[in-house]
Amino acid sequence: MNTLDAQLLAAHATNDAAQLVNLYTLAADGAGDVDTACFYLTHAYVFALEIGHSNTETLRAHLVKHGREPAA
Questions:
Q1: Total number of domains constituting the chain
Q2: For 4-51, what is each residue's pLDDT tens digit?
Q3: Looking at the domain assignment, is residue 71 inside a domain?
Q4: Of 20, 22, 31, 54, which residue is most buried, by most CB within 10 angstroms?
């Protein structure tokens, strides 16, 4: 298991939503294709919405850009 996977599992285990936003965003940044990146961005976005994270709108904008979230 790679370090990012271990960190994600640990953050899930402790319900650390802020860390999950950061880690899923990091996973998206390192994804090899748009579909995989958007999969991770969706997770980051959901956790960001739950806690009112400062990156919520940025994450949404990325999802809109790739057609995964409707534009306003």
A1: 1
A2: 999 999 999 999 999 999 999 999 999 999 999 999 999 999 999 999
A3: no
A4: 20
